[in-house]
Specification:
The protein is of the alpha+beta class and 174 residues long. It has two helices and eight strands; from the N terminus they run αβαβββββββ. It has one domain: Immunoglobulin-like, CATH 2.60.40.1090. The strands form two sheets. Strands 1, 2, 3, 5, 6 and 8 form a six-stranded antiparallel sheet that branches. Strands 4-7 form a two-stranded antiparallel sheet. InterPro entries: Adhesion_dom_fimbrial_sf, Adhesion_dom_sf.
Length: 174
């Protein structure tokens, strides 16, 4: 009977040691799984193709000006690009314009039409309403914060002249 008790004790002691030693040699390999959905379009941009008719612009109004000025009669450009339908994970959008800018004043969009020395000043709404935060520079991104998955991206400007001496009549195409 004593022998049986000792045998049971040794067996229990061995079982306890086996259990204790197996926790010291826990499995070191595992699997991590990450899942996501790739969506084709996270946002929709409306108004990408806009034509703004500035009407007839009088050369004489610009011939009197010097140094990036705009006459009172200068047409104002105000358009928006509507960014909508952005997913919950999208909180900001970056817009990077590409245009030919004046080499000395990069916010000035160069006319690709036949008229010379008339530009779009992207920082002005008139000769006195200048705001550098409004300015667009080619190749430089601007960031806009979304509200409920949407934002309006404003593009504004006014026709300006760099120097009266170089103005020629012709077409404007920006």
């Amino acid at each position: 009977m004593i022998e049986m008790k000792n045998t049971k004790r040794l067996f229990l002691l061995g079982a306890v040691m086996a259990v204790m030693s197996s926790s010291a040699f826990a499995d070191t390999t595992g699997t991590q799984t990450f899942t996501a959905n790739i969506v084709a379009n996270t946002c929709t941009i409306a108004n990408l193709q806009q034509n703004v008719d500035l009407g007839n612009v009088q050369k004489a109004d610009y011939e009197k000006l010097t140094g990036w000025q705009s006459p009172a009669s200068s047409p104002v450009i105000k358009v928006n690009f509507d960014v909508t339908g952005c997913g919950n994970g999208v909180t900001k959008v970056k817009v990077t314009p590409t245009f030919t800018g004046d080499s000395g004043v990069s916010r000035m969009v160069v006319n690709s039409g036949t008229a010379k020395d008339i530009y779009v000043d992207t920082a002005k709404l008139s000769n006195t309403d200048f705001d550098s935060k409004r300015a667009w520079n080619s190749g430089t991104a601007k960031e806009f914060t979304l509200t409920n998955g949407a934002v309006q991206v404003p593009v504004t400007g006014v026709l300006s002249s760099g120097s009266a001496a170089g103005i020629t009549a012709g077409t404007l195409d920006f």
